[in-house]
Input
Amino acid sequence: MVLIGVDYHPSFKTIAYSVEETGEYDEQELNHSDGQAEKFYRGLKQRGICVRVGMEATGYSRWFERLLAELGFELWIGDPAEIKAKRVKKQKFDREDARLLLRLMRENNFPQIWIPGPENRDLRQLLWHRSVGADAHPDHESVTGVGDERGLSLEEKAIQRTRASAVRKARVRSLGQSPPARVVGAAGPYESDD
Output
């Protein structure tokens, strides 16, 4: 089995790897843009080598996680805070980080966290986008009002109205005026601007 410690960056990765059976050790920097990283991992798969990769959790590695899942390689994702605490030298260098991740895997001391699989992550992303995404897009304008397209509960709508009212009152107070008078009419309570 080959153990690979990966210090991941969006445009490249620094790796430190060792072959358990032979004790062979090496370090490399692999670029993503020219396909060098993908070629490296596909080459290991073609040679029929079992691989375990360890890296810190990051939000920019989805394509890499998918590649490893496609190749059938084991991926361990570590808690960045715990990894940082295990760093002997407090200065952060890519090669040192890759070596540290490899050493933690060898010593069975890798602070692994649970990460959902690619299919589960896609489903979670779709659900999140459906519940929050419509309001998150700046180019999205609601015809019926804020939150109506999400089907907010009455409680959530009441909270939104309360927040909007508090903001209006704070603006008026900051101008040195008294808050608007509360008027009760046939349509129910509303705030008067006079």
Remarks:
- The chain is about 40% helix and 20% strand.
